[in-house]
Design goal:
2 helices, alpha+beta, 74 residues
């Protein structure tokens, strides 16, 4: 289980930009392939579309549950 806890209110674009910055660092370090980076970047707006409707509020949390072959987000 991993949890992302937000300490301030932000828009979806800001959130996705932060993810992109972190993934670019992972590519530079050799932890993430360019093709995987691009596939994730293409999917992020779909995966997190639910956040665009009300913005991310201070105190919000996203839970990630990991299992073989995938991740569930709540």
């Amino acid at each position: 289980l991993a949890i992302t806890a937000f300490e301030r209110s932000i828009g979806l674009d800001q959130f996705l930009d932060g993810i992109e910055d972190d993934q670019e660092k992972a590519v530079e370090a050799g932890f993430l392939a360019d093709s995987t980076f691009q596939a994730i970047q293409d999917s992020l707006p779909v995966w997190y579309a639910f956040l665009d409707q009300r913005r991310i509020q201070d105190g919000d949390r996203i839970f990630y549950r990991f299992f073989p072959g995938g991740v569930r987000t709540q």
